[in-house]
Amino acid sequence: MNFLDKYQNIVSEAVENYRFNDQPGELYAPMNYIMAHGGKRMRPIMVLMACELFDGNLDDAIKPALAIEFFHNFTLIHDDIMDEAPLRRNKATIHTLYGLNVGILSGDNLLFKAYQFFLDLEPILFKKCLKIFTDTGIVICEGQQYDVNFESMSNVSHDDYIKMITYKTGSLSAASLQIGALIAGASDEDAESIYNFGKHIGIAFQIMDDYLDVYGDQEAVGKKHAGDIYENKKTILYLTALEHANDEERAELDYWYSKKTDNVDKIYGVEKIFRRTKVEEKVLRLVHQHSETALEYLDKIKVAPEKKQALLELAEYLLKREK
């Protein structure tokens, strides 16, 4: 049995228990559609893992975990709209099936439904968790805007990119673990350490996601091959290539990233530069570095080493995601 199966089953059962039967059906059908696809549901699983790490009651963490999952899917719907993405998890995206307006409304409603899941918490814990949740939502929006800005910027730095993915991706993983820890009664110090563990795991996860956009199996990833190149996204692959390219290669990258086109010559030309500058190995090394930083924060948490095994396996799983 995969170490994640237990948690995935708990989350899947909870999602099914909260399936929407409300009206108008045109609003709720898309919400059921995206929630049913599931994905790996890593963020709500992190809530449960952190709760269990500190000997908390998983029943107390179910609704906050669902809040994270609902919120995450809200961001995916809106992200797909902004990217005009046709596929998500190898299925048609919400706006493709139901239209742009319904996509916006159903995403917004998932966000409000997410807030409802915190209402059962005791007042002090409610305030702590809601602050983390709301602050995370704000920085995710900021990260998304940075991501949009990068498409038209010519001077995006490595640090700019790390800040963007920390906000857009790392912050939600970090918040998920911190909320789970607080629900279990963890100390503020331990909650902060697990937050930083989650932040760096999230950074590693996003770098790997960027890597898989080019080097992953399209069917397994469930996205259009090299979609980030088509969209001129200044991912770590592009920035690494730019840093190690010669003048001729930089000029070619500038040329291709000045056009948003489905021309296969663009993909071929950019991937050729990626190969020459050894982007693949350099980016995987960066994934490893952030995973190691995450483990250093995990070591600081004051619980028995054997209790950390599930989170160690999580870090390894994210580092070795299937191509």
Q: Give me the CATH superfamily.
A: Farnesyl Diphosphate Synthase
The outline comes out as: globular
CATH topology descriptor = Farnesyl Diphosphate Synthase
The number of strands is 2
Structural topology:
Blueprint: H1 5-17, H2 25-37, H3 42-53, H4 58-83, E1 87-88, E2 91-92, H5 94-98, H6 100-116, H7 123-150, H8 158-183, H9 188-215, H10 218-221, H11 227-230, H12 236-244, H13 247-256, H14 264-276, H15 279-300, H16 309-319
Antiparallel strand pairs: 1-2
Describe it:
This protein has 323 residues and is mostly helical. It has one domain (5-319): Farnesyl Diphosphate Synthase (Orthogonal Bundle). 75% of the residues lie in helices and 1% in strands. It has helices at residues 5-17, 25-37, 42-53, 58-83, 94-98, 100-116, 123-150, 158-183, 188-215, 218-221, 227-230, 236-244, 247-256, 264-276, 279-300, 309-319; strands at 87-88, 91-92. It has a two-stranded antiparallel ribbon. A hairpin with a 2-residue loop joins strand 1 and strand 2. Helix 1 (5-17) packs across helix 4 (58-83), helix 2 (25-37) crosses helix 6 (100-116) and helix 9 runs antiparallel to helix 15. It is globular. The protein starts with a helix and ends with a helix. The relative contact order is 0.11. The mean pLDDT is 92.
